[in-house]
Amino acid sequence: MLSRIAESLFWIGRYVERADGTARILDVHLERLNHLPPEQQQQVARDLLQVMGSPLDRQDITLPELLRVLAYDRSSPTSIAGALGAARENARRARETVSTSLWECLNTTYFGLSRHREDVAGTYRFCQWVIERAATTSGLTDSTMSHDDSWLFMVLGRSLERADMTARMLATCDANPAGVSWVNMLRCAGAYESFLRTRRAAFDDRNAAEFLLMDRQFPRSIVYSLKNADEALALLEPTDQRSGAFNDARRIVGQARTFLEFHRSENLMDELPEHMERIQRSVARASEEIARRYYSAREEQAWVGELS
Protein backbone atom coordinates (compact mmCIF):
# COMPACT_ATOMS: atom_id res chain seq x y z
CA MET A 1 0.00 0.00 0.00
CA LEU A 2 1.23 3.49 -0.84
CA SER A 3 2.12 5.52 2.23
CA ARG A 4 -0.13 8.41 1.14
CA ILE A 5 -3.09 6.01 0.96
CA ALA A 6 -2.32 4.63 4.43
CA GLU A 7 -2.14 8.19 5.79
CA SER A 8 -5.45 9.17 4.20
CA LEU A 9 -7.22 6.07 5.53
CA PHE A 10 -5.86 6.64 9.03
CA TRP A 11 -7.14 10.21 9.02
CA ILE A 12 -10.56 9.29 7.63
CA GLY A 13 -11.00 7.13 10.73
CA ARG A 14 -9.78 9.91 13.02
CA TYR A 15 -11.74 12.76 11.48
CA VAL A 16 -15.08 10.94 11.37
CA GLU A 17 -14.65 9.90 15.01
CA ARG A 18 -13.60 13.46 15.91
CA ALA A 19 -16.80 14.84 14.39
CA ASP A 20 -18.85 12.23 16.25
CA GLY A 21 -17.11 12.88 19.59
CA THR A 22 -17.36 16.66 19.28
CA ALA A 23 -21.06 16.37 18.45
CA ARG A 24 -21.63 14.23 21.54
CA ILE A 25 -19.74 16.65 23.81
CA LEU A 26 -21.50 19.71 22.41
CA ASP A 27 -24.88 17.99 22.61
CA VAL A 28 -24.57 17.13 26.31
CA HIS A 29 -23.53 20.69 27.26
CA LEU A 30 -25.76 22.67 24.92
CA GLU A 31 -28.99 22.72 26.90
CA ARG A 32 -27.30 23.72 30.16
CA LEU A 33 -25.21 26.38 28.43
CA ASN A 34 -28.33 27.93 26.93
CA HIS A 35 -29.85 28.41 30.42
CA LEU A 36 -26.78 29.97 32.05
CA PRO A 37 -26.36 33.73 32.51
CA PRO A 38 -23.93 35.38 30.05
CA GLU A 39 -21.01 35.52 32.53
CA GLN A 40 -21.18 31.79 33.25
CA GLN A 41 -21.68 31.03 29.55
CA GLN A 42 -18.39 32.76 28.77
CA GLN A 43 -16.50 30.84 31.46
CA VAL A 44 -17.91 27.47 30.40
CA ALA A 45 -17.29 28.29 26.73
CA ARG A 46 -13.64 29.11 27.45
CA ASP A 47 -13.20 25.89 29.44
CA LEU A 48 -14.84 23.77 26.75
CA LEU A 49 -12.68 25.29 24.01
CA GLN A 50 -9.58 24.62 26.10
CA VAL A 51 -10.58 20.99 26.64
CA MET A 52 -11.27 20.57 22.92
CA GLY A 53 -7.91 22.06 21.98
CA SER A 54 -9.30 25.07 20.12
CA PRO A 55 -6.79 27.88 19.44
CA LEU A 56 -9.39 30.61 20.17
CA ASP A 57 -7.98 32.60 23.10
CA ARG A 58 -10.44 35.28 24.21
CA GLN A 59 -12.29 36.14 27.38
CA ASP A 60 -15.60 37.30 25.93
CA ILE A 61 -16.70 34.19 24.03
CA THR A 62 -20.44 34.13 23.38
CA LEU A 63 -22.60 31.05 22.85
CA PRO A 64 -22.99 31.71 19.07
CA GLU A 65 -19.19 31.95 18.78
CA LEU A 66 -18.79 28.67 20.66
CA LEU A 67 -21.22 26.98 18.28
CA ARG A 68 -19.36 28.37 15.27
CA VAL A 69 -15.95 27.23 16.53
CA LEU A 70 -16.99 23.73 17.60
CA ALA A 71 -19.69 22.99 15.03
CA TYR A 72 -19.71 25.06 11.84
CA ASP A 73 -16.22 26.41 11.09
CA ARG A 74 -15.17 24.48 7.97
CA SER A 75 -11.64 25.87 8.08
CA SER A 76 -10.86 24.24 11.46
CA PRO A 77 -10.19 20.49 11.79
CA THR A 78 -11.29 20.69 15.45
CA SER A 79 -14.87 21.62 14.47
CA ILE A 80 -17.52 19.14 13.36
CA ALA A 81 -17.87 20.61 9.86
CA GLY A 82 -14.11 20.95 9.46
CA ALA A 83 -13.50 17.32 10.52
CA LEU A 84 -16.15 15.98 8.13
CA GLY A 85 -14.71 18.08 5.32
CA ALA A 86 -11.22 16.75 6.04
CA ALA A 87 -12.56 13.16 6.12
CA ARG A 88 -14.14 13.65 2.68
CA GLU A 89 -10.93 15.16 1.29
CA ASN A 90 -8.89 12.21 2.55
CA ALA A 91 -11.44 9.80 1.06
CA ARG A 92 -11.08 11.62 -2.29
CA ARG A 93 -7.31 11.10 -2.14
CA ALA A 94 -7.82 7.41 -1.40
CA ARG A 95 -10.76 7.02 -3.79
CA GLU A 96 -9.31 3.88 -5.39
CA THR A 97 -9.17 2.16 -1.99
CA VAL A 98 -12.36 3.08 -0.14
CA SER A 99 -15.62 1.44 -1.18
CA THR A 100 -18.12 3.30 -3.35
CA SER A 101 -20.69 3.15 -0.54
CA LEU A 102 -18.29 4.73 1.94
CA TRP A 103 -17.28 7.48 -0.49
CA GLU A 104 -20.91 8.30 -1.27
CA CYS A 105 -21.72 8.41 2.45
CA LEU A 106 -18.89 10.86 3.20
CA ASN A 107 -19.70 12.94 0.13
CA THR A 108 -23.41 13.13 0.96
CA THR A 109 -22.60 14.03 4.57
CA TYR A 110 -20.30 16.84 3.48
CA PHE A 111 -22.87 18.39 1.14
CA GLY A 112 -25.53 18.05 3.84
CA LEU A 113 -23.64 20.33 6.25
CA SER A 114 -25.17 23.54 4.90
CA ARG A 115 -28.76 22.46 5.57
CA HIS A 116 -28.64 23.18 9.31
CA ARG A 117 -29.47 26.41 11.13
CA GLU A 118 -26.67 27.87 13.22
CA ASP A 119 -28.66 28.51 16.39
CA VAL A 120 -29.12 26.47 19.57
CA ALA A 121 -32.10 24.44 18.34
CA GLY A 122 -30.49 23.96 14.93
CA THR A 123 -27.20 22.88 16.53
CA TYR A 124 -28.97 20.30 18.70
CA ARG A 125 -30.51 18.69 15.59
CA PHE A 126 -27.19 19.08 13.79
CA CYS A 127 -25.36 17.13 16.52
CA GLN A 128 -27.91 14.32 16.36
CA TRP A 129 -27.57 14.20 12.57
CA VAL A 130 -23.76 14.05 12.78
CA ILE A 131 -23.89 11.17 15.30
CA GLU A 132 -26.18 9.23 12.95
CA ARG A 133 -24.00 9.94 9.90
CA ALA A 134 -20.84 8.90 11.78
CA ALA A 135 -22.53 5.63 12.78
CA THR A 136 -23.50 5.04 9.15
CA THR A 137 -19.93 5.72 8.04
CA SER A 138 -18.50 3.27 10.60
CA GLY A 139 -21.03 0.63 9.60
CA LEU A 140 -20.21 0.98 5.89
CA THR A 141 -16.50 0.88 6.68
CA ASP A 142 -16.88 -2.44 8.49
CA SER A 143 -19.35 -4.00 6.05
CA THR A 144 -18.18 -2.87 2.59
CA MET A 145 -14.38 -2.92 2.88
CA SER A 146 -12.17 -5.98 3.00
CA HIS A 147 -10.64 -6.33 6.45
CA ASP A 148 -7.11 -5.96 5.13
CA ASP A 149 -4.48 -3.31 5.78
CA SER A 150 -6.72 -0.56 4.36
CA TRP A 151 -9.45 -1.31 6.86
CA LEU A 152 -6.92 -1.70 9.68
CA PHE A 153 -5.54 1.81 9.15
CA MET A 154 -9.08 3.22 9.35
CA VAL A 155 -9.82 1.20 12.50
CA LEU A 156 -6.52 2.33 14.00
CA GLY A 157 -7.35 6.00 13.42
CA ARG A 158 -10.90 5.56 14.69
CA SER A 159 -9.79 3.74 17.84
CA LEU A 160 -7.11 6.26 18.81
CA GLU A 161 -9.44 9.20 18.22
CA ARG A 162 -12.24 7.51 20.18
CA ALA A 163 -9.95 7.06 23.19
CA ASP A 164 -8.92 10.72 22.93
CA MET A 165 -12.50 12.00 22.54
CA THR A 166 -13.80 9.90 25.44
CA ALA A 167 -11.01 11.36 27.57
CA ARG A 168 -12.02 14.89 26.50
CA MET A 169 -15.66 14.04 27.20
CA LEU A 170 -14.78 13.04 30.76
CA ALA A 171 -12.61 16.13 31.15
CA THR A 172 -15.55 18.42 30.34
CA CYS A 173 -17.21 17.37 33.61
CA ASP A 174 -14.75 19.65 35.41
CA ALA A 175 -15.24 22.39 32.83
CA ASN A 176 -18.91 23.00 33.57
CA PRO A 177 -19.70 24.64 36.93
CA ALA A 178 -23.41 24.01 36.33
CA GLY A 179 -22.73 20.39 37.13
CA VAL A 180 -23.27 17.99 34.22
CA SER A 181 -24.67 14.83 35.72
CA TRP A 182 -23.05 11.48 35.07
CA VAL A 183 -26.38 10.24 33.73
CA ASN A 184 -26.07 12.82 30.95
CA MET A 185 -22.41 11.91 30.44
CA LEU A 186 -23.30 8.23 30.05
CA ARG A 187 -26.06 9.14 27.60
CA CYS A 188 -23.58 11.32 25.72
CA ALA A 189 -21.36 8.26 25.18
CA GLY A 190 -24.34 6.03 24.36
CA ALA A 191 -23.44 4.04 27.46
CA TYR A 192 -26.44 4.53 29.75
CA GLU A 193 -28.28 1.25 29.05
CA SER A 194 -25.08 -0.80 28.95
CA PHE A 195 -24.00 0.74 32.25
CA LEU A 196 -27.31 -0.11 33.94
CA ARG A 197 -27.17 -3.71 32.74
CA THR A 198 -23.60 -4.06 33.95
CA ARG A 199 -23.68 -2.20 37.29
CA ARG A 200 -27.41 -2.44 38.17
CA ALA A 201 -27.91 -0.71 41.55
CA ALA A 202 -24.31 0.56 41.85
CA PHE A 203 -24.77 4.04 40.43
CA ASP A 204 -22.54 6.92 41.45
CA ASP A 205 -19.92 9.18 39.89
CA ARG A 206 -17.08 6.75 40.53
CA ASN A 207 -18.85 3.78 38.93
CA ALA A 208 -19.83 5.81 35.87
CA ALA A 209 -16.30 7.15 35.40
CA GLU A 210 -14.82 3.69 35.89
CA PHE A 211 -17.18 2.27 33.26
CA LEU A 212 -16.17 4.84 30.62
CA LEU A 213 -12.51 4.46 31.52
CA MET A 214 -11.98 0.76 32.09
CA ASP A 215 -14.86 -1.39 30.89
CA ARG A 216 -13.42 -4.15 28.68
CA GLN A 217 -16.60 -4.77 26.66
CA PHE A 218 -18.18 -1.37 25.99
CA PRO A 219 -16.97 -0.07 22.58
CA ARG A 220 -16.59 3.57 23.59
CA SER A 221 -14.62 2.98 26.78
CA ILE A 222 -11.00 4.09 26.72
CA VAL A 223 -9.62 0.64 27.54
CA TYR A 224 -11.68 -0.99 24.77
CA SER A 225 -10.60 1.65 22.23
CA LEU A 226 -6.92 1.27 23.11
CA LYS A 227 -7.25 -2.52 22.89
CA ASN A 228 -8.64 -2.17 19.35
CA ALA A 229 -5.77 0.15 18.42
CA ASP A 230 -3.23 -2.33 19.83
CA GLU A 231 -4.80 -5.22 17.88
CA ALA A 232 -4.78 -3.19 14.65
CA LEU A 233 -1.09 -2.35 15.11
CA ALA A 234 -0.29 -6.01 15.77
CA LEU A 235 -2.07 -7.11 12.58
CA LEU A 236 -0.47 -4.38 10.47
CA GLU A 237 3.01 -5.55 11.42
CA PRO A 238 3.04 -9.07 12.87
CA THR A 239 6.29 -10.29 14.44
CA ASP A 240 7.74 -13.42 15.93
CA GLN A 241 10.02 -11.40 18.20
CA ARG A 242 10.02 -13.11 21.58
CA SER A 243 10.81 -10.19 23.86
CA GLY A 244 10.52 -6.42 23.97
CA ALA A 245 8.45 -4.06 21.85
CA PHE A 246 9.83 -3.42 18.37
CA ASN A 247 7.01 -1.01 17.48
CA ASP A 248 7.07 2.23 19.48
CA ALA A 249 3.44 3.07 18.68
CA ARG A 250 2.30 -0.28 19.99
CA ARG A 251 4.44 0.12 23.11
CA ILE A 252 2.86 3.52 23.86
CA VAL A 253 -0.69 2.25 23.30
CA GLY A 254 -0.05 -0.93 25.30
CA GLN A 255 1.38 0.94 28.26
CA ALA A 256 -1.57 3.35 28.35
CA ARG A 257 -4.09 0.50 28.12
CA THR A 258 -2.53 -1.76 30.73
CA PHE A 259 -2.05 1.13 33.17
CA LEU A 260 -5.79 1.82 33.11
CA GLU A 261 -6.88 -1.81 32.87
CA PHE A 262 -5.03 -2.89 36.00
CA HIS A 263 -5.15 0.37 37.93
CA ARG A 264 -7.08 0.38 41.20
CA SER A 265 -7.67 3.46 43.29
CA GLU A 266 -9.91 4.59 46.12
CA ASN A 267 -9.78 8.16 44.82
CA LEU A 268 -10.57 7.69 41.15
CA MET A 269 -12.50 10.94 40.82
CA ASP A 270 -9.57 12.93 42.22
CA GLU A 271 -7.22 11.19 39.79
CA LEU A 272 -9.52 11.62 36.78
CA PRO A 273 -7.86 14.80 35.35
CA GLU A 274 -4.45 13.10 35.57
CA HIS A 275 -5.75 10.00 33.76
CA MET A 276 -7.33 12.11 31.01
CA GLU A 277 -4.15 14.08 30.44
CA ARG A 278 -2.12 10.87 30.29
CA ILE A 279 -4.46 9.33 27.70
CA GLN A 280 -4.38 12.41 25.47
CA ARG A 281 -0.58 12.54 25.62
CA SER A 282 -0.35 8.83 24.80
CA VAL A 283 -2.67 9.17 21.79
CA ALA A 284 -0.66 12.13 20.46
CA ARG A 285 2.64 10.27 20.87
CA ALA A 286 1.24 7.09 19.30
CA SER A 287 -0.04 9.08 16.31
CA GLU A 288 3.39 10.64 15.83
CA GLU A 289 5.08 7.22 15.92
CA ILE A 290 2.55 5.78 13.44
CA ALA A 291 3.28 8.67 11.08
CA ARG A 292 7.03 8.19 11.43
CA ARG A 293 6.85 4.44 10.86
CA TYR A 294 4.29 4.10 8.10
CA TYR A 295 3.95 7.22 6.01
CA SER A 296 6.28 10.07 6.93
CA ALA A 297 8.63 10.77 4.04
CA ARG A 298 10.53 13.56 5.83
CA GLU A 299 13.31 11.34 7.19
CA GLU A 300 13.65 9.52 3.86
CA GLN A 301 13.98 12.78 1.90
CA ALA A 302 16.23 14.68 4.28
CA TRP A 303 19.43 12.77 3.49
CA VAL A 304 19.26 13.60 -0.24
CA GLY A 305 18.59 17.27 0.38
CA GLU A 306 15.04 17.40 -0.96
CA LEU A 307 13.74 19.41 1.97
CA SER A 308 14.44 23.08 2.40
Can you walk through the features of this model?
By secondary structure, this protein is an all-alpha fold. It folds into two domains: 1-145, no CATH class; 146-297, no CATH class. 70% of the residues lie in helices and 0% in strands. It contains 14 helices and no strands. The protein has helices at 3-34, 38-51, 63-72, 80-93, 100-111, 120-144, 149-171, 182-188, 192-199, 205-214, 222-236, 248-261, 268-295, 298-302. Helix 1 (3-34) runs antiparallel to helix 6 (120-144) and helix 1 (3-34) packs parallel to helix 7. The longest helix has 32 residues, at 3-34. The two termini are 27 Å apart. Mean pLDDT is 86; it is low at 298-308.
Secondary structure: elements and pairs:
Layout lengths: L2 H32 L3 H14 L11 H10 L7 H14 L6 H12 L8 H25 L4 H23 L10 H7 L3 H8 L5 H10 L7 H15 L11 H14 L6 H28 L2 H5 L6
Helix pairs in contact: 1-3, 1-4, 1-6, 1-7, 1-8, 2-3, 4-5, 5-6, 7-11, 7-13, 11-12, 12-13
Largest sheet: none
Shape: globular
User: How many domain units?
Assistant: 2
- What sequence of helices (H) and strands (E) makes up the elements? HHHHHHHHHHHHHH
In short:
With 308 residues, the protein is an all-alpha fold.
